[in-house]
User: Fold Ferric reductase from Anoxybacillus andreesenii.
Amino acid sequence: MDVPFISNWVLIRLSGFLAYFLFTFSISAGLLSRLAVFQKKRPLMNELHQTSGWAGVLTVIFHMILLWRDRFVTYTLGEIFIPFFSDHAPLASGIGTICFYLFLIVFVTSDFLMKRLGKNLWRKIHLLVIPAWIFMVLHGFLIGTDSNLPWAAFLYGGGVFLVVTIMSLRYLESYFNSLADKNDAKKTP
Assistant:
C-alpha cells in the first residue's frame, strides 16, 4: 500500500507513533476522570477516554495491515497474529502482538460485555490496559527505527512521565481519601 508521496515505511512508523499517542491519551483521560478535580468534567473525560482508545485500536489494525503489505520487511499473517513467531525481531514483534490482544480484550469487554461481566470482574480486566500500554512502549522502543533519535526518546519519555504522574496523583488522592475516611469513622460513635 504505497501512497505516491508517502512510503509504506513512513506510514508504518507514523501509525505506530499515532497509536502510542492515542493510547497514552486514552489512559491519561481515563485516569484523570477519576480525580476529584475532574469530577464535573467526568462525562467529557470518559468520552475522550473511549474515543481515543478505539481510535488507537483501529490505528494498530492499520499498522498491522501496513506491516503485512510491506515489501521491505515482510510479515505473514501468522507472524503478525502469533506472538514471537516473526522472523524479524521476534521478541519486539511478539510484545507488540500481545499488546494488541490485551488492548483488544479491554475494549471489547468495556463496550460489549461490561454488563454481563459485572463491575468487579470488568474493572480487573480493564486494568490489563496498564501492561498493554507498557508492552506498547517496549515494542516501539525495541523495534522502532526512530527510537534512538532524540525526538522519539522525548515522545516515549514524555508519555511515560505523564502516565506515571497521573497514576501517582490518583494513588495519592485515593490514599488521602482513605485516611480521611478512617478518621471520620473514628469520630463517629
About this structure: Residues 92 and 143 are 6 Å apart (CA to CA). The chain has a mean pLDDT of 91. The chain is about 80% helix and 0% strand.
